Amino acid sequence: MSSEDIKIDPRIKRTKKMFKQALISLIREDSDQTKLTVQRIADRAELNRATFYLHYDGIDDLMEQMIEGILDEMYQTITIDAIKNSSSHSPSYPALTSFLEHFYQNAGLYHVMLENKAFHDRVFGMLLDIITLWGEERIIKGRPFHVLNEVIASSTLGIVTWWLKERTPYSPNYMAHQITLLVNGEK
What is the mean pLDDT of residues 134-142? Predict the structure, then answer.
């Protein structure tokens, strides 16, 4: 029996969701994570500490599981299929657009989660993968990058962070287009 065959009790899913929402809510109120306690999270979720410890070893475990879930969901939106189904742009363009669309749909969550260094670093890694694909496309076309992929990924993450702080005033497609222009050095 594989892990996919095992059905998770809907009550467990609901309980974990309540703890995650409570954690996000508390972080939104005060980003100082040193003030977080299991009791505060349990109180916000309207559950008890014992229930918390049935599902998590501690706050770090809750945070890690939440980060894993968020990133798994994001990876699913940036699939090889999205890249292969590109019609008018390079394969990296739909990957970047999917990445931004996922951020757009979950802007409040990502605005909070980017404060977490582990999450920030993993999102940077995803962007670096997209940018690396972009670099390979440019080399094939005879236009290699003159700037390291890490610098481009870092700049792109800075742009995304600004976009979230400004409450996503532009569409994901528009942002992807602007980032593409910037990366390609076009006007």
Answer: 72
